[in-house]
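Allow me, if you will, to draw on your knowledge of protein folds for a short while. I have a record of one protein: its chain in single-letter code and its fold written as discrete structure tokens. Could you please explain, in whatever detail you think fit, how the structure tokens follow from the sequence? The record follows directly beneath this note:
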Amino acid sequence: MASLATPAHVSNLHCPTWKTKRVRCALSPPTWREGRRVVSLSLVLSHFLLIPNRDAAHASILDKKKLDPLEAYVPAVILTQFQIKDLEKTLEADEPQFALCRSLLRSGPAASLRINIRAVAQYASDSGYGKTAFNNVDECLRSLEELDSLLLNASRNDPEASVKSMKTKINSALNALDSLLQTVPSDVLSKGKAIADSYREPEHVETGSLDPELKQLESIL
């Protein structure tokens, strides 16, 4: 599949209700379009769907000293799950826009997917779950790479690139993400889900309704 040209990096979220430091993803809820909570990608992630040599890449890129707290990655991974599920819904249209679906894999939280899930896997490795976690990472990225290839072929009117096969790849990626998130401590996962859910709420909902712990967690993001 074609890869993006710029090096892997994280995204910046410009939102009046979020005090940001280092943010892993951003998108407009839940339609993934620009709005009040607008996405500003400082650099677009490249090769986020490619699967490098695990041992060399994991050791060189995810130096533990360079990682942010685990809480900074989990909401982004959960939002990516939402995004992939929304992508699946677009495939149910009478005439799916396959080229648009490919762009969705390169925007919002999905743009930082590779670095986010590998960071989560690194934390899992520190807790003794590294083999399972990195297998989940590889399975997720492989499925999305194959999905991207199917979308490309479908955009070129290839009859063998069926929507059914695309959904199979989507389900495989989502299952891998679910399995990866099971390695996250329950308290961190719960707070990550709360932040992800609040971000997808209607724009009139203010973070003032969040409890103090969630507000503190937002300050990390």
